């Protein structure tokens, strides 16, 4: 089944990838209008999903992710129009170079080709990913969660209709119609797929990264640290800690571990505990932290490695910047790390020695985000080093092709 | 064993990655001097490798790859000095950006970290890869061919000595000392390795790409085509064909298949056959090609997919540009493809529709090469679409890190 889908996707992508910016933007606006027009049908399909036994068995937070509303659909339609308004990531060149023999080379941005997406409950991802794919000239094979199959099918039907109306082959967007797990596995091994993106929880991302034989971009696992240096402004540190832990704890750029220099721990930790406890945060402290705030629960080894994604915080007291750097090197996931300090040497070392996508000096880790970074779109936040690192804009869904214009140039023979 | 090597490599890389350009360049010049000074010892180790039964069993061409000479070592030393003279790929920034809230962001080039290399007989690769790694601030774990183990060990000993003399931790360069195949497999699954590069034959590269769970860059499989359009200058086409097939048939940017438009096949094929037969080329033609040149051997399905890397050429007559494009889409390896035509529309379509790293219009595919492209170094030629595509310079061995300077900025809370 997937081979046939891939083959249709390649054929459909060829025309999309060569189309003019204005044609793709028109299709995106048609997709937005179609989502608005079909709101009732989509919501009906979503209610059926929610009524099924699988959905009844979900936790409240997963059910919330699965649930659509007229307001959410309107936001998704607005999002498609916002993507239409972004600059085209395709067709830009690196500038023509002429080799000594007169051969002219230009490296231009082109689509990746066919992208696979494996994701979980949120049907909104179907719309967001479709918009990014169409804008960047790529075809998409979607494999959503079993519990959202009806919602996703309704959305894809609507989006495909709009694409066809705009003059594109609707096979640009295809949904794997069978929820059986083996199709997710097959997608990870679908030779010819240009990229597979897992979107969802850490477990899904790790599984795809480990199992896939097609190219993958890993996104969004963030065990982020805040290090409060001995030369920190403690008011600033507290504001950054609260923003990172309480602002939106369920996201990958939220803080998970607080490291505090021994010299400022007595002044900082009781204050931080008092303030964030009032916000509902549970603390897991090491022995030194608990000596200062005995009410903290004891931290175990598992706490240092854990991405709580919730109102929980691991706390360790460190003797030095070196110890903080070693802790981050050992447990960090290379996403976003922050130091608060007014000491130049400490800040410079932290910037230089921490190996992460984004390293903050006196600012919150919560800024690691495509929209905050001004990229206009959120393809995801890459925690890998190849191809893209940190917040990914539309350019992450493109590659380059070198075009060469000659006049018969040969290298060794004439 | 590999975990311990990786841990030592990470520690050694930290200092190398932060070192100044001048220090790394000094180390590279020290490595060059050390190779020159140790020429006798290295050649003695190489003679021992050549005298072992495994080497005696090798084909003549593989023995040639294994064999070092004083001249080859001098070239390798010169190569290290040439790398020292290249611009530093590290430390360059994208230009500071200031967000509306005053947060300042700069994306800077940093090393990948620890790179693994799996390669075959050629001990020269040990020196070339070491030079590129040191220049780009990366540590290297080398896993060479079993038949070259003594030569590689001698080279790595010399290079490590020079690194230590230049003030760097020699664990920047480490050779897997045990030739057992399981260590190659273990390297493909060494969690924490930032990149694994296979260098060698197509089989090695495919195995690594399929099996590895660490990030891989695939290089150098090239089933390259020349399409001679009906509007081609046939003299130009013949020169480009000869250059591509005869100039150096053993390399990945050599031509493997000739596609000729039916209208010019009667004028072109007999000439091409006569000229390239005199060069020693064997032709494998389809029925239409053999109707024009009966002396060609019949081509089988396998010929279209094969990278001969030798004086052999597959030939097909096509009815149209569309048929040529379909053939290339089906059998090409996305490396380098060429058209010869003076027809604007045909050339434009070929440029736009062929999915390959480099697409030539009226020039030889043999220019796909880091040195020819002016990159100054040859990390390899990527045939994948993520991270790097086409000839890779030192920048392909780097990634980016975003540094953020704040004044206490928070996103949601104060």
Strand content of chain A: 15-25%
Low-confidence stretches of chain A: none
- CATH H-tier superfamily of the largest domain in chain A: Aldehyde Dehydrogenase, Chain A, domain 1
Number of helices of chain A: 16
Oligomer: homodimer
CATH class of the largest domain in chain A: Alpha Beta
**pLDDT averaged residue by residue of chain A:** 95
CATH T-level topology of the largest domain in chain A: Aldehyde Dehydrogenase, Chain A, domain 1
Distance between the termini of chain A: 49 Å
Considering residues with a beta carbon less than 8 A from a beta carbon on another chain, report the largest interface and each chain's count. A-B, 65 and 65 residues
Shape of chain A: globular
Specify the structural class of chain A: alpha/beta
List keywords for this structure.
homodimer, 414 residues, alpha/beta, Aldehyde Dehydrogenase, Chain A, domain 1, Aldehyde Dehydrogenase, Chain A, domain 2, 2 domains, seven-stranded parallel β-sheet, four-stranded parallel β-sheet, globular
